[in-house]
Amino acid sequence: MSRAPESQPIDRRRYGAQYCLDECRKQIRLLVVSPGSHDTIVACDIKICSLFDEGHPRYEAVSYAWSHVKGEGVILVSGDRTIVPAATEEALRNLRYLDRPRTLWLDAICIDQENTEERNQQVALMHEIYKKTTRTVVWLGKADESTVGAIDTIKLIHNQMCAETDYGKKLREVLYGQANIFQYSTTPLPEGCDFTALRSFLRRTWFGRLWVVHEVALGPCGIVYCGEHEISLIDLMRTAIWIQHKQHQLPFDLDKEDGMLNASYMSAHVDHDQGWFSADHGKKPFLADLLRYFRPFGVSEARDIVWAASGQPLPSSLTPRYQKPLREVLRDTTRVAIQESGDLWILRYVDHEVVSVSSNMPDETVPSWVPSLFRKPNQEKEPNPLRSAFRANKGLEGSHSVEGVLGSSNEDLLIANGLKLGTLNAVGPVLGNESQSIPRVQELLHRTLAQKFVQADSFAGSLSSFTTHDLVLTLVGGSTFNPSPAQKGECEPVASIFNEFVAVLDAVCQTNHPDRSDDESYTFANTLENARFARCVWAIRYACTNRRLFTTQGGQIGLGLGPQASQEGDVVCVLAGSRMPMVLRPAATGFRVVGPCYVHGIMQGEAAAMIAEGRIDQEQFVLR
Per the database record, which ranges form the Heterokaryon incompatibility domain (predicted)? Predict the structure, then answer.
């Protein structure tokens, strides 16, 4: 709606006087929206209430995306024509009742967005504001040509989910099984689905906004509006996770549908009965888990990554303060995550892109141990997480204490006990996204298994002391796990297939001279294209993307798969509080964290035996 000449922006002086909030009483503003037909101007009044007051007015909290409509709109606030974001005006116009007032909480008007102190106070109350609402009302925007087809498809898929899970009562059991690992179905979604309409519907801006996750998760229930159409929030969320369950039967690539994936992630929180984090089935997630889980979602203010992802009351060090420097917010959040989990698990998400030969570490003002969880994922440049079942620090836990790690008066430092196992002396190239292709995996196997070098001819022989089994196990990062369903009729355990895969590759290396690259490449290609070994090839692609092979000297180990920022002179360590070995870079004082790594032969507590044998001593690492 165009701006009327007599319209004024919201009068912030009135917010400071007539509508002033008492922080001690946890006061909030509510918006009482007058009834009206669609073509009349939106009129509303502001009412103050205290969250301490059990008798406060019943209200609905509105969840919407500010940016899905550009420009400005005009509404009446206590009789004054007032400029608001166009998306706010659109939501109010479509959500008001025809015949009675509707009491709403809507952040754009109920929080003085220009008052930083008030924003701090009100953001800290978000948990309670959405908890105490009667329900959350989601506004996706006006309907378009795909809306009807999308909602019909959602209902169709939801009906299938109900039929296969006893109307949702066994949804978690079907999705995760007895092993509590997400299961992928081998049967398709029902016929008649309009996937084009569904994908368009789930690409709406709302599905990419981080704040909406807890806006819908904290309320007791929710309803979703798209124009004049509506659907239950829980039905939408369960449909999304069901689509992920059927991922391998879809006629499109789900991994490229961010909105659809985000909706399935939301279901873990929104579904209070059957979701991954539901009280009856799951455990309360750690802050680090939430930061990882919601990385794909977007925020307009970088600090909101922390405050929107948590959805819970935070310790005093993380009380929302928008004037607080971003580096301090990220640093303090990492420290809280360490305190909460009791270990250094969050360091497994440290990843620094290679910027240049001379400067491939992050901004010096941010501690190197701050993880990449605070930026949106980039599949082209980031590695996939290594498996979580490793226990490299087994037997060392007794020398770890959170108090010791966080005990420095300089909050930019972590102080960890651990073992230094070797220094990188040969580092391979970054195995970029090209490693997703069969020819690149073929080239990688030829270089490491047949020619036995890491990077160039000058390093020829640096891998000669390792068996084919050792090398391939390193290339898969210690795992042949594949999330896709097993081949029909395939019943052998993964380990058996992996051993067969290694034996075939070893035979190639034994029967072909290293200089006969054409013959070897042809045989490697045949092996990689064998459907029986698809899991093993997938595991190589998964583990090697955006990592480097390395060898070490002067220590207790020899071979590893490390971060893309690894370079010669870095050291491999097992820290007492970290289940993953870490690559560290010596600094003038202390070390900088490069990232986690897989190291052949020390992933299940072997380092502790080295102490018992007197081969190595523990030392202290100051991480900067």
Answer: 59-215
Neighbour count for residue 436 (Cβ, 10 Å): 15
Residue 130, CA distances (Å) to 215, 271, 311, 622 in order? 6, 15, 10, 42
3-state secondary structure at position 395 = coil
- In this prediction, residue 39 carries a pLDDT of 86
C-alpha distances (whole Å) from 50 to each of 16, 30, 46, 474 are 17, 10, 13, 59
Task: Give tens-digit pLDDT for 60-90.
Answer: 999 999 877 889 999 999 898 989 999 999 9
Nearest partner of 622 among 303, 368, 258, judged by Cα: 368
Host H or E run for residue 105:
strand 102-105
Question: At 21, which amino acid appears?
Answer: L
- Side by side, the strands of the sheet bearing 60-64 are 8-9, 80-85, 72-77, 43-50, 27-33, 102-105, 60-64, 136-139, 222-226, 229-232
Question: SS3 sequence, 125-140?
Answer: CHHHHHHCCCCEEEEC
What span, in angstroms and rounded, lies between the C-alpha atoms of 480 and 535? 6
Residues for the chain: how many in total? 624
Question: If you average pLDDT over residues 374-391, what whole number do you get?
Answer: 82
Quote the pLDDT of residue 553: 79
